[in-house]
Specification:
1003 residues, alpha+beta, 5-stranded antiparallel beta sheet, 5-stranded mixed beta sheet, 31% strand
């Protein structure tokens, strides 16, 4: 390297010590190397901060680089006493510096920064040497600045926007595919005693060998003491050009290669060593009783796979497949060992050894490799009694055995404590959900057991865990009529029963059962439209009966009149309609043919933030979940890896383009943490209608999670997506059809019903998928379906308000432009508008064609600026980058709340203030509407007379004067020159504002 530079990427820290007295720290990192010092930004109230900032050091003497040391100190700034506390440090010798091609993100354990200080946690750094001439050296800090000076600068930053030298921040050219590097320079004040006042324009001096940025587009950063300033580039989408199975993806198009794969072309080809252990025969006796408890260990270096154990079996059959990633092979010899399970120590039975160089390679669609019998050998290599049937080959993830195999990258070294069913990949099919409509009409011949009071009767209706009740009625006779309707959710294959209990309220919280009825859901009529279902009479069972069917020899006089049906014409919403993945009705007979195919390649995740510790360092055991329609998929769990590579591909049939694919990343809580639950890392939503047909989208999506301390980037997820359309005509025709099935419009459900039913639907899906192996737990289902999106959030309310402003910004801009035209701010524009206006008045038949042509030209012009990537989570749109900490605490508060009374009082007062403003706006809108009503209501007789007289005069005027002339005169009057205007409001507006409203009648 002619001009080497040391690059240091500060990625994140994990499990830091709390130093602020409130269980958190205001962390930043200070780097020292070769008499140069740099600092990162400060992350407030975060024990797991994420920076992803890069710095570049100049090496004064490259020959002595091995004698230099890089020190990274982690500090916490205490605002109360304006000091900083050491959280630990990392020392890296110059002998450990490697070139960029060999560099990886490594979690360094923090050491004590001072003699009496404490240290805990890890600091993730990526350190490497580079001689890229396009990279400019960072400007080092000449000397240390006192802590109090930095504190004053930090506290007064709102009053003085720039207190230090301006430093140019420029983007460093990409040196690695899919990775972004940014140069952050930190300047310091000229004086240590008082902060300098920034000059009007600062000239930046560049050293020899530094690259001067473009003069017109510099980004100026006022860097003083590290402060919490989120960088939007961290949370942006990044396009990548990976080499997949079909070739390299460039600009959404695949450049095929010679060794192109026929299937799984959206993932990177990964080669695995497959070992299929089929069975054994004629195993020798090992214990005193002449039996053997055999199992097999498959060993390759430090990796080990173990089959299940059989008891007293000389001819066991396992049929288990193990895989070992070829890029993680640690030995050239594969050993398959048969052992006998013993209480003290497992006894060696025999083994079979393979040289990896002699193992064949299989590429689908080749036929599976046939297993062969191998004679067992002892440790000296001599043949023994017993044979083992094996098949060993090298293949890719396209192999049929991949899905059911036990993977080496999905388990730790020599770790067999985790069941294989919890780490395998799996495809799930969620149950098909139906609505159950129950219309309770009446009860006849009701028998009341306590006759000393008037019965207060109600009916409880129950399906599974769902229970509703009718309103209580005082029974004047033995017949009671309700005619109330209820909606429930159920799932195929309809194992539940509809249970109705007739009860009498005999006292406070005391009900007496008067009868019950059990109705199997399989016996209920089904309907796909709004046809009327005939009601049926059902005999009530005895209150003491627990059987589904009443004995035939027992007669009970009471009966109930019901109208019950299974609704197949609705779509049961388990997600919000805004990002639903399926819109088909429940009945298969109403399904239309698919319009396309959606293919998803889950490639890898990068720079994940550790969420648990193992062996003294932070780690993760991650898996991905993708949901679209009824099909859920789960990748294999890759353990103890912060940069997992999945490379798994899945496909879905698409029935509607206005649907959304959801992909989430989770940490497996069942590995070494029994019962902890799966923790969310982040998720991505992709709307199918935003994808171009046939284009391959390869992007790295930021995984963003909102915590009580603010939004946090947990890493990045690399995906490859392709949408293929089978019938363009059918897809275009879908845009003319209703979004939901017809029953949602013929017999609509209320919003409260939909919210309640959606909650029940999520519970049913979670209960069904949690019983699979590996299970999809309830917290995963709720996070993927956004089950808590209806909970109040001040942040989300602000975001929706700003969305409304953005929607109407176009109308406001058009109104401002028209006002400027009327005020003659641009004479040429106003003159052209006059000409266009006169032309449209002369030829009114051109108005609508001109408008349509104008809209077409706007769309054609915007085609050049169309988005080339799917939308992703936007922190600015979500108001997550500017949210108040108390608002976040309120959003994450439980329901009902458990916060202290004083904080609850503050939140209540704030909510009252917001509601008061909304109340004022609603009242103003109502007042304007009441003034319109007052025009002819004679509430103000004089105003009504004036309005009627003006209407009569306008009728004669409009009849006698040509309409074109009236429009022409009105337009010319509206666009008259400012010298003919006055600042007073016009007469019609004055008249309207004087009309009475009903505000004066309100208390």
């Amino acid at each position: 390297m002619s001009n080497p530079k040391l690059a240091v990427e500060v990625v994140r820290a994990h499990n830091l010590i709390a130093k602020d007295g409130q269980g958190a720290s205001n962390a930043f990192v200070e780097l020292n190397f070769d008499d140069q010092t740099f600092r990162t930004t400060m992350k407030e109230k975060d024990l797991d901060p994420y920076w992803n900032e890069s710095f570049y050091f100049n090496i004064s003497n490259p020959d002595n680089i091995h004698d230099l040391t890089l020190e990274a100190h982690v500090y916490s700034f205490n605002k109360s006493n304006e000091s900083r506390s050491s959280l630990g440090k990392v020392r890296i010798n110059g002998t450990s510096f490697v070139p960029f091609s060999d560099a990886v993100v490594f979690d360094y354990p923090l050491e004590k920064g001072r003699m009496f200080s404490k240290a805990k946690g890890e600091l993730a750094l990526k350190v490497y040497l580079t001689d890229d001439p396009s990279i400019r050296f960072s400007t080092p800090i000449p000397g240390m600045i006192s802590t109090s000076t930095f504190a004053n600068l930090h506290n007064n930053q709102s009053e003085m926007p720039s207190l230090v030298e301006d430093t140019v921040v420029e983007e460093v050219p990409k040196v690695k595919k899919g990775f972004r590097q940014t140069l952050y320079d930190i300047a310091h004040p000229k004086s240590q005693t008082e902060p300098p006042t920034p000059p009007p324009q600062k000239t930046v001096t560049y050293g020899v060998g530094e690259m001067r940025p473009q003069p017109l587009t510099p980004q100026v950063a006022h860097m003083m003491y590290p402060r919490p300033s989120p960088h939007p580039a961290e949370f942006s989408l990044k396009e990548t050009n990976p080499f997949l199975g079909g070739g390299q993806v460039v600009g959404g198009r695949v450049r095929p290669t010679e060794n192109r794969s026929s299937i799984y072309d959206l993932v990177e080809p990964m080669h695995f060593l497959y070992v299929r252990v089929v069975k054994a025969r004629d195993l020798p006796h090992k214990d005193a009783t002449g039996g053997i408890d055999p199992f097999v260990e498959v060993r390759l270096g430090n990796y080990k796979g173990v089959t299940k154990r059989f008891e007293k079996n000389h001819n066991p059959e396992w049929n288990t497949v193990f895989t070992f990633a070829r890029d993680r092979l640690q030995s050239s010899i594969l050993e398959v060992v048969v052992k006998d399970k013993d209480m003290v120590k497992n006894e060696f039975v025999g083994r079979v050894r393979f040289d990896l160089h002699d193992i064949p390679t299989r590429v689908p669609p080749d036929s599976p490799l046939a297993p062969e019998w191998y004679r067992l050998e002892d440790k000296k290599g001599e043949k023994k009694k017993g044979e083992l049937m094996l098949a060993v080959w090298v293949g890719t993830q396209a192999d049929e055995a991949f899905a059911d195999a036990l993977h080496s990258d999905a388990s730790s070294f020599d770790d067999s404590s985790t069941p294989s069913t919890l780490i395998r990949s799996k495809v799930y099919h969620a149950p098909r959900l139906w609505y159950v409509r129950v219309n309770v009409i009446e009860v006849q011949d009701l028998v009341v057991y306590e006759g000393n009071h008037a019965p207060n009767v109600h009916i409880k209706i129950q399906i599974g865990n769902q229970m509703l009740r009718t309103k209580p009625l005082m029974a004047q006779s033995s017949n009671v009529t309700w005619n109330e309707e209820f909606i429930f959710v159920t799932a195929e294959p309809f194992d539940d029963h509809l249970i109705l209990l007739v009860e009498d309220r005999v006292g406070p919280n005391k009900d007496e059962n008067l009868g019950k009825v059990f109705i199997p859901l399989t016996m209920i009529d089904r309907r796909h439209d709004d046809r009327m279902i005939q009601p049926r009479w059902f005999n009530l069972h005895q209150p003491s009966s627990t059987d589904v069917e009443e004995p035939k020899n027992h007669k009970f006089a009471s009966r109930i009149h019901l109208r019950v049906c299974l609704e197949g014409g609705y779509h049961v919403l388990d997600e919000s309609t805004y990002y639903s993945s399926d819109l088909r009705p429940s009945a298969k007979q109403l399904w239309k043919p698919p319009i396309g195919l959606l293919e998803l390649g889950i490639l890898n995740a990068d720079a994940l933030t550790p969420m648990k510790t193992r062996n003294g360092r932070g780690t993760l055991d991650t898996f991905c979940v993708a949901k679209y329609g009824h099909k859920w998929v789960r990748t294999r769990t890759i353990t103890d890896n912060l940069n997992p590579r999945y490379n798994e591909q899945y496909t879905w049939e698409v029935y509607d383009p206005s649907t959304v694919l959801t992909v989430g990343v989770f940490d497996n809580g069942e590995i070494n943490q029994k019962g902890q639950g799966d923790k969310k890392i982040g998720k991505v939503r992709i709307r199918i209608s935003t994808l171009e047909t046939g284009r391959v989208y390869t992007h790295s999506y930021p995984l963003l999670v909102l915590h009580s301390s603010g939004v946090k980037k947990m890493g990045e997820l690399h995906l490859a997506i392709r949408f293929s359309c089978t019938s363009l005509l059918n897809m275009m025709q879908l845009y003319t059809r209703p979004l939901l099935p017809k029953m949602h419009y013929k017999a609509p459900l209320t919003m409260s019903q939909l919210e309640m039913l959606r909650h029940q639907a999520v519970d049913i899906v979670a209960a069904r998928l949690s019983r699979a192996e590996p299970p999809l737990r309830k917290e995963v289902i709720e996070y993927m379906t956004d089950a808590d999106s209806h909970i109040w959030s001040m942040r989300r309310s602000k975001a929706n308000f700003f969305r409304i402003l953005a929607v109407f910004s176009g109308l406001l801009a058009a109104g401002k432009w028209l006002n400027d035209v009327c005020l003659w701010k641009n004479t040429v524009t106003t003159a052209l508008v006059h000409v266009l206006f006169i032309m449209l008045i002369s030829f009114p038949e051109l108005i609508l064609p001109t408008l349509c042509l104008y809209l077409f030209l706007i769309g054609a012009w915007n085609y050049r600026f169309r988005p080339m990537y799917p939308p992703h989570m936007n922190i600015s749109l979500s108001c997550a980058d500017s949210v108040n900490p108390d608002e976040l605490d309120e959003e994450f508060d439980l329901f009902p709340t458990k916060c202290p009374d004083d904080r609850l009082r503050i939140r209540y007062d704030r909510l009252r203030s917001v509601a008061g403003r909304m109340q004022t706006v609603v009242g103003d809108i109502a007042s304007q509407g009441e003034r319109f009503q007052a025009l002819l209501s004679w509430r103000d007789p004089r105003a009504t007379v004036i309005f009627m007289a003006s209407c009569l005069l306008s009728a004669f005027l409009l009849y006698s004067v040509p309409f074109k002339l009236l429009v022409f005169l009105a337009g010319i009057y509206a666009m008259r020159h400012p010298r003919f205007r006055q600042k007073l409001p016009p007469v019609p507006l004055n008249f309207f504002r004087r009309l009475p409203a009903r505000t004066d009648s309100m208390l």
